[in-house]
Structures are given as C-alpha cells and as structure tokens.
Amino acid sequence: MEQWLHSRAFVRERRGLVRTADAPAGTTLESGRHEVSSGPPLDLAANDYLGLSRDPRVTAAAIDAVAHHGCGARASRVVNGTLAVHNYLEEQLCLLTAAQSALVFSSGYLANLGVLTSLGGPGTLLILDSHVHASLLDAARLARSPVVMVAHGDTAEVGAVLAARTQPRAVVVVESLYSVLGDAADLNELAVLCARHDAWLLVDEAHGIGVAGAGRGAVYEAGLGHASHVVRTVTLSKALGSQGGAVLGSATLREHLVNTSRTFIFDTALAPAAAGAAAKAAQIILAEPALAQQLHSNATTLARLCGFARSPGAVQSVPMPSAEDALQAAQTLRTAGLLVGCFRPPSVPDGVSRLRLTARADLMAYELEHAAVLLGRVMPALPDSSLGSAVAELDKEK
Ligand SMILES: Cc1ncc(COP(=O)(O)O)c(C=O)c1O
C-alpha cells in the first residue's frame, strides 16, 4: 500500500499537481495560533469576499454564541442539536435572500449532498452544467439518479434534455456565479425552461451570496426569490465569513429535507460560533449594500489594472499555459508576498489551469495596484508570452 501511495505522489509531482494543506510560509504555529513573522501577505486567494470574517461585529457574535451555547452543538439537529442560534440564522438567511425557508447544514458541501440526494433517485433526472462544483458532482453520484451533463452555459441543451426526459421528475443543477471562471448562469432563462417542463432548478449560490444583487444573491436579483421551483444552496464560508451551508426553498422542501436528508440527519449540527457569526454577517450584508458595491468596484479596478475582461463575480480567472506554469507563477507571487489561487486539474472543469484572483471589498487601492504590478510579471499575456521567461525576469530583480 505505501508503495502505491508513493507512486501516486510521484505521478502528481511529475504533472505539477501537488497540493499542500500547510499554513503559508512565514508563519509559525504556536498553540494553534498563526504568528506571522514577515508581514502579512496580500491575499487574493481567499473567499472572504466582503472581509467579514474579521469584522468585529461578526467575531463578537461568534463569541456571544459560544458563551451561550458552548463550543459544539453536541448532537444532530434532529436529536437535540438544534439551538436557538440555528433557527435565528435561518431567519436571517430568509430575510437576506427573500427565501420562504432555510435549513442550515454544517457545510455548503453537505448542503449540496443533502438536497440532491433527497430530491434524487431513479425517478429524478439530474441535469448538471459541466462546470458545477465537485460537491454537486459527488451529490449526483450519491443520488442514484440518471444523470446528464450538459455543455457549460448551454440553456438550449438543457431545454432539449428536459423535453426528451422520461422520468417523472427532473432537477437542473447550476451555479449562479461559477467558482473557477467567475461567469454567470442565465437564471431567468433556466427558470422559465424548468417551469415549462415541471422541473426544479437548483442554484448553488456559493459565489453569489454577498456578491450579486447588492449582496442578496443572483436568484434574488433575478426576481426568483419566491419561485417555488427554484431551490438554492449557499455556503456560509465565503462572503459570510464563517462556516456552514444552507438550503433555501419552500417550507415543504425544508420539511422533506429534515426528514430525508442524510447529511442533515446523521451529522452534528453546525457549531454555535459559526452559526452566530453567519447570522450577524447576513444582517450586515442586508443593511450595508455598499459592501457588495465596493467589492464590484475593486473587481473592476483589478481587471482594468491587469488588462483582462472582468467577470461578473468576485472571482477573476487568468488562464495559464499549463499546470506547472500556474504552480510556478503562484509560488513566485507567494514569495513576492501575493497569495493567489492556483487551480489545476481536477479542480478545473475545462482542464485549463488558472490563477484565480478574488477581489474583496476590503482591498485598498494601493493593494490593488501592487497586486497588478506583481501579476503583470507572471501573466502569460506579456509581450513575450513565455511564462518561464517572465518568471525568470522577476527572479532576476530580487
Ligand atoms: C460552488 C461551491 N459550492 C459548494 C462549495 C462548498 O462549500 P463549503 O466550503 O461550505 O463546504 C464550494 C466551496 O468551495 C463552492 O465553491
């Protein structure tokens, strides 16, 4: 077995696909605390789109929830793990997104698994956009449903598959803002198609909540907040700066999930601190639409400074010639003090490796300018588009 693990590691290394789960270089770990020893890096990698994970109001709400409920929820929601803070969070999510009801899970991943396995089965056709997140692909596998993958963003193909279906039920599965390319689904068109063919539309708003619709999400923005055939999943771990996930939909759907969703029933409830923090973040996003506006203004500035067309979300995606080039560029930038996402197979649905930049509301103008200068040195669109020589140039300057 060890030998097999070594051979797999060797193959990953040869393909430039090695990942690590270590704290950034320059930090030391002491009693679980990160001590930054050489100045904090400029972070365009994390998903804290509105900078709420360290907002004093959000951290105070987390502390308050711990003081009231303890560190852990101690049991599944359906045993005695449901705390007042979970129901309060569900209320706040409904206010933010105009959903009829919300059910909180302990992650966005588990929310996706929970809803698709509960709606799926042999009588439910699942139609997935080919760029949907890994959690939705895993959910489709677990659902024991017939599955059709359609080309990315191809609503005509969705319509054709719906029209030809033989199963009594169908769910069309998309993301509102896609996690790797940062592009948007045509929600209005999809909702019309689904209504026409008596199907559900499941929209993963992981990257839409807090970002689109002045923070209230792309489904809200599209005027579909109350549409009973539109089901949403959200993560609390990106713009809401916390941890956890939720399914938003009708009260009937919520009741169905409470009774059938295995990732809800057989999982300890979300930790109180995460629930308290996310509830406060949801309140802030609703009360302060200027936060989402600032994020968009920063994304536009970043795209302009770097010379690429901006995508509608916070995620800006820079294609790289190869996985090795993406990794080398990300490492060079990290050494220079800039953290960017490095997306390589299997995390890229089209096989194109990328640097992934996330614009945040709390980035300062000088930080965007500094990031653009560093990025300009490693981006493949340089006059000499050979990334290797661009990186070498940067190395020479040091
Ligand atoms: C589109 C999408 N859906 C779901 C998830 C999973 O959310 P969580 O991190 O809360 O498990 C992610 C996280 O990366 C995501 O990008």
Task: Note down, in words, how this protein is organized.
Residues 382-398 have low confidence and may be disordered. The protein is of the alpha/beta class. Helix 14 runs parallel beside helix 16. The protein has helices spanning 2-14, 56-69, 77-81, 84-97, 108-119, 134-142, 155-163, 187-196, 218-221, 251-260, 262-265, 272-287, 290-306, 323-335, 365-376, 387-397, and strands at residues 27-30, 33-36, 42-44, 101-105, 124-129, 147-150, 169-175, 200-204, 230-235, 245-249, 315-319, 338-343, 354-358. The strands form three sheets. Strands 4-10-9-8-7-5-6 form a seven-stranded mixed beta sheet, sandwiched between helices. Residues 107-109, 112, 133, 135, 175, 179, 204, 206-207, 235, 237, 245 line the site of pyridoxal-5'-phosphate.
List key phrases describing it.
single chain; 398 residues; alpha/beta; 4-stranded mixed sheet; disordered C terminus
Structure summary:
This protein is of the alpha/beta class and about 400 residues long. The chain folds into two domains: about 25-45 and about 315-395, Aspartate Aminotransferase, domain 1 (Alpha-Beta Complex), CATH 3.90.1150; about 55-285, Type I PLP-dependent aspartate aminotransferase-like (Major domain) (Aspartate Aminotransferase, domain 2, 3-Layer(aba) Sandwich), CATH 3.40.640.10.
Question: Secondary-structure map with pairings?
Answer:
Elements: H1 2-14, E1 27-30, E2 33-36, E3 42-44, H2 56-69, H3 77-81, H4 84-97, E4 101-105, H5 108-119, E5 124-129, H6 134-142, E6 147-150, H7 155-163, E7 169-175, H8 187-196, E8 200-204, H9 218-221, E9 230-235, E10 245-249, H10 251-260, H11 262-265, H12 272-287, H13 290-306, E11 315-319, H14 323-335, E12 338-343, E13 354-358, H15 365-376, H16 387-397
Bound molecules: pyridoxal-5'-phosphate.
